[in-house]
Predict the structure.
Amino acid sequence: EDLVESGGGLVQPGGSLRLSCSTSESIFSFYTMGWYRQPPGKQRDLVAAITTDGDTNYGDSAKGRFTISRDTTKNTMFLQMNSLKPEDTAVYYCNANLDYGDIGRDDYWGQGIQVTVSS
């Protein structure tokens, strides 16, 4: 597997979880890393992304509650999720992408990890 995800599970509303995504050095060094999520019956949307320079971008649902980071010593990206709500329940997917502009974009996807927020 190119992307290995961990850290999902069941958490009560208001709780926290930290997702991890590990990959190879070759991918981690050149690709923007990010998390997407797909609730049941809905489309897959961006949660957060981080470039190799450390610039971050958050989806509206994540702003103020989630923090994305990357550890270059471990080739691992993290998503710290706080103040979780039931509507955060979804399958979360790790993504690595390299945008070639007009030529196209190269994407890697993880298998997905379930996050369930429920009392």
